[in-house]
Specification:
It is a single chain. With about 800 residues, the protein is an alpha+beta fold. It has 13 helices and 44 strands. β19 (about 375-380) and β20 form a beta hairpin. It is globular and about 95 Å long. Residues about 1-10, about 30-40, about 585-590 and about 645-655 have low confidence and may be disordered.
Length: about 800
């Protein structure tokens, strides 16, 4: 356990006797950085990422020493090129900021909304920090969601059977991938010649070349994007393919999504996470993914490979202040709810780990003029017992504009394995939620672990379908039922707390992530290594980087069959046909979804068993007639007709969606190649807009949903008052009232003597608006009561019986 220091008011820390570290601290905290009462970060590099400050001084020392050869950094987060470092910058005027940074020597610059990315000369970091157009400048750091052969994912999803049964191969569609690179290793032409990728000379006739919109041929790139495209080509060999690098900064990634949409991609899949993407808000990459979804493109993103490697809690003052690392006296977070200012962790020798801390403040980089954080936190790694700062991040978050701190630590041999984390609150109000994520599964949290969700960033975007991972050999097609999730697959459930403009939401929004799980560990021609799980020697590609393109490729088969119905219909059908994985992870929704596996393993046999060609709804008074047609049916047991209920509006707001209700079942025609027509009537509907859908069910129990249809029902009479239910009641009953014309309505309750005992509603009802009213008789004796509703155009009374 970490040292308990409840009785100690202050702890004096030290930092390593390192000239580079000392110079960096001076440039963050200014000339008074060692003063005990220093409470401002006033140095020349105070409001930029602390990683960049360290890099600048490391580079200056390298230059001063006159060392030969290219500069390399001890910070593995730094992506370097010719004396430049990859950065993400933001400012209210993105184009102006791009021009200013290019004037300082920025190369490969890209701008998306408020964010600019590119390679900045390291010696120009101080000049960039002084730019008036700059809000945020940080090191751009990211991670992958880690013919001759065919991926076993094809058999695991049974998409091979779907191609045969439904005569589809993705023809007429285009699937595109985003990752590090496509052909940095120079193997693409070989993959075409063996039939593993399309292009001129493909022996199987798939001769349309991959549309490489933008590649990154930098040294060190491993063509993970090409391996992803091999998976897509295996499952949907008739689809056209495209690629755009996701490397180069957040602006390159976000703009790349837009470029692929403009290139005609109907499905985009990626496997990259930038550590500084907002966890509790949609950043620019998430916004680009949502824009793609709105334009009709399905977006699949790897959920990540970090399991539950995260800690979260509300900030609690430990009562312990720390000093000695350049800022004066700083209060700290109590990891046990208020007493222990450090959290003990284990980092094995030889392990490299990246820590990312975020808290419930908005990011200024999400839009022009957006507010930034009110609180400035510092994130430190200490030895054990906690006396020396070994690593950390202490950016001025308020000046820098974003509520995030990122640092990496490489634990060398001989350094021990026990360490401590500390979170200092430099200034600002206490955060209601803080959360840190770490990348290495070898690291363990030894105390106060919360095992929290880890899938954040654009994979958590509303329009993206995040994909978990299950090894192909742990699926029903290979004898394992239900499928088993990989232990590393990231868990969802990170809440969205702010809208894109930085406004705090009225209540947290927790999205259904991941949406589905896909098979990974299949063959490709070059990426990964042979795991020994199969009989051949081809390398096996594991991780959500492999499962996401597998499910994305299956979506292309849906697109061909359904005639491009839109991404939400694609998601709904894939979720409906997924194989439930019965994961015990708690915290999921009561919808067949859980935060570890989503709705289950994406699966193809239920792929469009019924070809629905028409579905509409026509209102006739207070009744609606539903009509639908099929062109053909395969093992069709029938259709469950469902209607979407509406929750009661509150505080004068419009009602929001409730739950889907089953109204009835219409038997299908089994298997037939002949067109079929169906009719179903729904009567006694309340006024307003009603939404219907069909749940088509196979004989084996698999099902899929139709597109939704809406129809407006108007009142035929001046008012509508539904009977109270239940009646008799104990202690509550409810009924609804609606009016044809907008008016003031009052609803009272009277006892048998004529005395008014309750007023249930006294306000204005809009025309055609249905109001549900609850009568709670808990404090009333048993007996007969009368509900009386009165308006300008009607008056109605109903008797109800209160029982004990």
């Amino acid at each position: 356990m970490a040292t308990q220091v409840m009785a100690q008011a202050d702890v004096q820390l030290t930092v390593p006797d390192d000239a580079i570290v000392q110079a960096a601290l001076a440039d963050v905290f200014g000339p008074e950085h060692a003063a005990k009462d220093a409470r401002t970060k006033a140095g020349p590099l105070a409001h930029i990422d602390f990683n960049l400050t360290l890099l600048y001084h490391e580079y200056a020392a390298f230059e001063a020493a006159g060392k030969a050869g290219p500069f390399t950094s001890t910070n593995a987060l730094a992506r370097l090129r010719d004396g430049r470092v990859l950065v993400d910058a933001s400012g209210d005027d993105g184009p102006a900021l791009l021009r200013a940074l290019e004037a300082l020597g920025l190369t490969r610059g890209e701008q998306y909304r408020t964010v600019v990315s590119g390679y900045l000369p390291i010696d120009k970091i101080p000049d960039a920090a002084r730019l008036g157009s700059l809000t945020t400048l940080r090191m751009s750091a990211f991670t992958r969601g880690v013919g001759a052969t065919t991926t076993q994912a094809d058999e695991a999803m049974e998409s091979d059977e779907a191609r045969s049964n439904f005569s589809v191969d993705g023809s007429g569609t285009k699937g595109c991938a985003m990752s590090d690179s496509y052909d940095a290793l120079g193997g693409a032409s070989g993959d075409v010649s063996t039939g593993d990728l399309p292009g001129a000379g493909n022996p199987l006739g798939n001769t349309t070349p991959v549309d490489v919109v933008q590649d990154d041929l930098s040294s060190g790139n491993v063509d993970e994007g090409r391996a992803m495209l091999q998976i897509i080509h295996d499952v949907a060999p008739g689809a056209a393919l495209g690629f755009h690098t996701a490397f180069g900064g957040q602006a390159v990634f976000a703009q790349g999504i837009t470029d692929l949409v403009n290139a005609g991609c109907g499905m985009i899949v990626d496997d990259i996470l930038y550590f500084a993407e907002p966890a509790f808000q949609d950043g620019v990459i998430a916004q680009a993914a949502d824009a793609a979804f709105s334009s009709g493109v399905s977006y699949f993103s790897s959920a990540g490979n970090s399991a539950q490697q995260s800690y979260h809690d509300a900030y609690a003052d430990s009562g312990v202040n720390i000093s000695g690392y350049g800022r004066g006296t700083v209060p700290t977070h109590g990891f046990d709810g208020g007493g222990d200012w450090v959290q003990q962790i284990t980092i094995p020798e030889g392990t490299s780990v990246i820590f990312t801390l975020q808290w419930d403040d908005p990011f200024a980089s999400t839009c022009s003029g957006c507010p930034g954080p009110d609180t400035d936190l510092d994130f430190l790694l200490l030895d054990d017992p906690p006396t020396t700062v070994l690593a950390g991040a202490a950016t001025d978050n308020i000046a820098g504009g974003d509520a995030v701190e990122v640092f990496q630590y490489d634990n060398p041999s001989g350094s021990g394995t026990t360490f401590n984390l500390a979170i200092g609150k430099f200034t600002g109000p206490d955060p209601g939620r803080l959360q840190y994520f770490y990348t290495s599964s070898a690291v363990s949290i030894d105390e106060y672990a919360t095992d929290s969700p880890t899938s954040y960033g654009h994979a958590n975007a509303a329009g993206a379908e995040a994909v978990g991972a299950s090894a192909w050999f742990n699926t029903p097609a290979f004898g394992v039922s239900p499928p088993v999730i990989n232990g590393f697959s990231s868990v969802g459930g990170v809440p969205i707390l702010f809208d894109t403009n930085g406004n705090r939401l009225g209540s947290p929004e927790t999205r259904l992530k991941p949406g589905i799980t896909g098979p990974d560990g299949g063959n490709n021609t070059f990426f990964g290594s042979d795991s020994g799980a199969d009989a051949d020697a081809f390398p096996n590609f594991f991780g959500t980087s492999a499962s996401a393109p597998a499910c994305g490729a299956l979506a292309l088969l849906y697109y061909e069959l359904l005639g491009n119905p839109g991404p939400q219909t694609i998601y709904d059908n894939m979720r409906a046909s997924a194989i439930d994985m019965d994961n015990p992870y708690t915290g999921g929704f009561d919808t067949g979804h859980d935060f570890a596996t989503g709705f289950g393993l994406c699966n193809a046999p239920a792929l469009l068993p019924v070809e629905l060609t028409a579905f509409d709804a026509v209102a006739d008074g207070e009744a609606v007639t539903l009509r639908w047609e099929t062109a053909s049916e395969t093992n069709n047991a029938g259709f469950e007709v469902q209607r979407l209920s509406m929750r009661e509006p509150e505080n004068g707001s419009e009602g929001d969606e409730g739950a889907w209700q089953a109204l009835g079942f219409v038997e299908g025609h089994g298997t037939t190649a002949e067109p079929q027509r169906y009719v179903y009537q729904v009567g006694d509907l309340a006024p307003g807009t009603h939404t219907f859908r069909l749940r088509q069910v196979d004989f084996d129990g698999t099902f899929e949903y139709s597109p939704e249809v809406e129809v407006a029902v108007e009142m035929a009479a001046a008012y509508r008052l539904t009977p109270a239910h239940p009646n008799p009641f104990n202690p509550t009953t409810q009924f609804s009232v609606a009016v044809q014309r907008a008016q003031h309505v009052r609803i009272d309750v009277y006892d048998v003597t004529g005395r008014r005992v309750r007023t249930l509603f006294d306000g204005r009802l809009a025309a055609q608006q249905t109001r549900t009213v609850v009568f709670d008789g808990d404090a009333l004796p048993s007996g007969v009561y009368y509900l009386r509703a009165r308006g300008q155009t009607f008056s109605a009374t109903e008797a109800v019986v209160r029982t004990q």
